[in-house]
Amino acid sequence: MTNLQKRYFTMTALTAVAAAALVGCGKKEEAKPVAATPAPAASAPAPKPEPLKIAFAYVGPVGDGGWTFAHDNARKEIDKAYGDKVVTSFVEKVPESADAERVIRDMVSQGNKLIFGTTFGYMEPMLKIAADTKGVKFEHATGYKTADNMRTYDSRTYEGAYMAGVIAGKMSKTGTVGVVGSIPIPEVIRNINSFTLGAQSVNPKIKTKVVWVNEWFNPPKETEAATALINGGADVLMQNTDSSAVLQTAEKMGKRAFGWDSDMTAYGPKAHLGSAIINWGPYYVKAVGEALEGKWTGGSSTWWGVKEGAIDMVSVAADVPDDTKKRVDEIRAGLKDGSFMIWKGPIMDNTGKELIAKDVVADDKFLGGLKTYVKGVEGKVPGGDKK
Q1: FRET label pair with 309: which of 269, 336, 337, 341, CA 20 to 30 Å apart?
Q2: Same domain for 206 and 61
Q3: Are residues 139 and 161 both part of a single domain?
Q4: What confidence score (pLDDT) does residue 85 get?
């Protein structure tokens, strides 16, 4: 091979290598797969609203079998109705004194936004606290003073007292019935009078004796008062106190009596003629519902009775005559539909003065300020707190 040929082959090889190199250098890099865009994170669920904290101040123990027991049963109805939307609590045996203000202020400091005070004597302390804590709602039982963030509620216990009186008038053998009174405010005076009017509707000659204990809950004093009434000739007793002591005393002494505020049959089954009960549940469930829905307003007063399912006569004794039971049923129905009026004239006080003229029906203002006994009730209303 000549030198010219060698040169030719060498140049051809070099050209081929260079061309290959150029091709390699020109090779495009394969595209890398693009990572998928992550899906947007799911929105976090809205935080669950904090439960409404609700507190109750009770004047007696929850086991009193009467007034406080009835309120606490209604508190449990709130829990049942609203579940985890509410948290309820209570303090029992709160005196109607400076202690009431201390306890209720403590309830406020613990974050309670709805507070129920369940006795008349809490009115002034609650009014004072309401003025200082506008962000809290207050409900006061049996009072008459309100504020922008405080309202009152009550039950027409006198309707239950009247039905008890109808039974007492029929069952009394001596013609004398007795009442153990708590504190001489219009609420209690109204109940004594209504009991008497009911008894007189059956037996116009019925007389009512009253012994006052000046406390809502004091079983020993209630026992003493009941004993004094029985020794004074009363053979059927009613009370406007909070324990079952009166019924138990009647049981021991062979007389008859009524349960009050709650069904007390079990405390004196032989003595028990019936129980005039209060059902606070419908009002409490309504009030809490309004607070939860932002519809609660202060400055108002509510007074519920048989018509609204707040008052009834239950567990009437088997030996009460059928015609008397029928009459109680008729009264209940009349109170429910408005066709029967307990406080319809003529009604006289026990000094012979006309309280209500013939055919006139007393209004709530009259009933709310009642300070005297009706005809047939012995004695005078003692001094004390009055509306």
Answers
A1: 269
A2: no
A3: no
A4: 98
Whether the CB-CB separation of 345 and 358 falls below 8 Å is answered with yes
For residue 42, which amino acid is it? Answer: A
Q: How confident is the model over 41-96, as pLDDT tens digits?
A: 556 677 778 999 999 999 999 999 999 999 999 999 999 999 999 999 999 999 99
- CB neighbours of residue 322 within 10 Å: 7
Q: Which domain holds residue 337?
A: 157-277+312-368
pLDDT per position as a tens digit, 242-261:
999 999 999 999 999 999 99
CATH of residue 112's domain is: 3.40.50.2300
Q: 93 and 242 share a domain? A: no
Check if the beta carbon of residue 237 is closer than 8 Å to that of residue 255: yes
Q: What are phi and psi of 253, to 5 degrees?
A: -100, 10
Distances (CA, A) of 42 to 4, 48, 58, 290, 312: 79, 17, 48, 34, 55
- Strand (E) or helix (H) holding 21: helix 3-25
pLDDT at 49: 85
Residue 225 lies in a domain: yes
The verdict on 94 and 168 lying in the same domain is no
